[in-house]
Amino acid sequence: MKVVTRKSLWLLAFYMFVFGFIILMFGIISHVAVSSLAKVWFATPLPPGFTTKWYVFAYKEFQLPHVMYVTVAVAAGVVFIGLLISFPAAYVFARKDFPGKNYLMILYLLPILVPQMTYGIPLATAFSKFRIAGSILGIILANLVPMIPFGIFILTPFFEQIDISIESSARILGAGRLRIFQKILLPLCIPGMLVAGLLMLIQTVANFELSFLVAGTESQTLLINLYYAIFAAGMRPIYAVDAMAVIYMLLVMSLLLIILRFVPPTQMVFRLDRR
Amino acid sequence: MQKEAIGTLDIQITKRFGKKTVLDNFTLTVEGKEFVTLLGPSGCGKTTALNCLAGLIDLSEGRILADGERLDTLPPEKRGIGMVFQNYALFPHMPVLKNISFGLEVQKRPMDEIKSRVEEVLSLVRLQGFEERFPGQLSGGQQQRVAIARALALRPRLLLLDEPLSNLDAKLRQDMRAELKNLHSELGLTLVYVTHDQTEALSLSDRVAVINEGVIQQIGTPMEIFESPANLFVADFMGCQNFFTLKVKEIESDGKIAVLEQDGLELRLSNIPQPKIGDDITLTIRPDDIQVVDAPSLASQAPVGERDNTTPGVVSVVQYLGKENDIDVVIQNDMKIRVRSPVKVERGDKIILYFDPERIIFIPR
Amino acid sequence: MLRSYYFRLGFKNLDRMALFLLLPSLLFLIIFFLYPFFYGLILSFTPEKGKPIYDNFYVFLTDDWQRSTIWKTIRLAIPITILAILWSVPLAYTMRRGIRFERVVTTFLILPVSLGTVLIAEGVLGFLGGNGWFNQFLINIGLIEEPLRLTYNYIGVVIGLFLKNFPFCFLMLLGYVSGINPEIENSARILGASPRQVFWRVMLPLMAPGITIAFALVFVLDFAVFPTAILLGQPADATRTIAIAAYQMAFEHYDMPKASAIAMIMAVIQIIFLAIILAFRKRLYRGTSLGIAKG
After folding, report:
1. Calpha distance C291→C295 (Å, rounded)
2. Closest chain C residue to the Cα of B136, Cα to Cα
3. Model pTM?
């Protein structure tokens, strides 16, 4: 009986912490959302009046169309180039063993594990030397540094799942390499590509450090624009800043909603057991 | 402190996961020092039953009594049961020695007792000299022995084994089977063993319980299970391959011998309990209990129906197995019969089959 | 001769095709990851005219104001990392076999990881700020009279960073713990270990390699704290972290050699820390990583 009591006490503490965390997250999100709809709001449970004018304000004041264009262009570029480069490499990682493979894996892991702020500064310095800093291309290239290895590590298990004998039998049946790729590998890998692409997409949209260090005034993604808005909080009404935050949040959350249909949350972070 | 070996174990379990009933009034009594096997296909509930015994999952209804005392209300660590898992479940971060002494150490037994017990079980499974190895450095068979030694070190009242041999290769499996049987008789253990392999079940156990979809189909000695299966499922699972359903055509004067017929196949049998005319009777016979009575060349001339319980047929497939052949024979009405016989025949040969009435198994419904 | 040598090494597997497939990603990382890094390294050893070669480092490390950023960063990173681990381990352990509402819980946890630090900062500023719901609530129930100061200071940064890195740490560990074969735990129970003994003697040692790696990763992330320290803290004072110092040197003073030097110092501290953790891990647990996966 004593054991049971201790166990339920522990479970109570467990649920209280989880509940507290959820309340905190919920409070944070809804505070931003309510604030974005407030006419004014000061130290009251709810604002006295609601309005949608801050969204219109944000749309004009923050050059929303242009910011959205940059965000979409960067995300599309990263996903497209990222998949194009990581797909073949993942195939090699899944299928071939060669000396030095482990060292190569470490090299590919570094951009994921090393904080972006650490290598972002030398990267931005080098970019400004070659005059690609401040352009959309620069942001795409910077984001690709962690995203290509990331794509490889997401895709490799998908290739490993495909039995090598399927490839061998196709080859025995007379298919050339190109046909095997076209008729076998590509169709079988579409789920993997989808998962990798979606994860790259959300991480690029939500990337701060690299985009921030490389962005110029004309090439700010939504998140960078939001950062500057919060940073210079006094310059514009807080409600408009929150309207921007809500737009960003809706974008990320809808992406997340799609992703969670395909990927469990534990697989969205770095996998510890794959080393 | 040490409990005596279990005298009798009374089990009556109903287990539901959500709406699905995995074990439906699963009732079994295990006597002391008995080797009982739960046999069934995967997903039949046999492992669930074992986990209920071990206390790893709670019962939905029912009880488990060891010598009249409730066992199912105790947590697993208080039940005095040993268990060997399919994947051995050794502690990968401990060397062999620590793996085996773990149970004794958490019970805070004196050091010299721990030491002597560990030595004892290590010699029992012949693994002296491996004390400092880690599980990752052992072969599958060695890991298996460590798992057994670990379970035995506590001198459990009851030992549970969950498909312990399924991860070993064929030869090793045979050796371990002999060793398990030896351990059982040497130590006088009470054992509940789970497997899907009928050979293991027949060769090891005192009694076998055949399970399907959470229900015990038959409990009996290996011989009872093998020779008089209680129903179609047991017969099929025990390797009977030829099933027929025949109608009772007539009953001879003594009331014992019945003549059954369907589509031209006629059998005279004496082992049908209380036959009635018009009844449908399901029968089965193993491939090696069917005889090929005539050489192929004579088959065409042999008068059909001269002997009871014969039928002509045409060989459709022959599989050479070394000492014998598996022969598929098509008889009346395109029915296919599988025969195992040393007789040399070829595809297309006309032959006559003889069903030994003593070997025909009646399947109650 | 050469051919057979390559064969022996196993190069036969790395045929021309494989090399061709690997090349784009390798080239990309060399050009955009390794090259900038070495470029920065060389730049950091390029002092102003007439100064000694290590001058960029010397200037940073001898300036009290600049050097103090190291300490300020550690003061943030260590407590947050320890806090995240201390919460994550028991929570992940409790959830290892699933709980009720698991999907809801993990979804709420992945949210801050996906949204990122900037949005969390804006939310915390509102919700936990002087006029936010949290302080309103505490004042209304009479617990406090003056609002708690939870933003624009050290505490604000701790909260903001914890909100993102705790779920990150937790989800990593949850993936790790639920990968441990449940039969191992079951066999410990059957061998007579109580739930408490199972945790301390079996599961915790098995989780330890994962915990140490998670600790290292979260620490390194915390150490690079940047937007949180600016938006939620006092970037000119108590929470002026080393990343801020590097950023200001690069983009406010446009002194790339000195900025690179600071970035290199940041990298070196992270590497030293990682090395300590990994050495610690190696000494404690040998042969542990073998065979804990589900069969």
Report:
1. 8
2. C290
3. 0.84
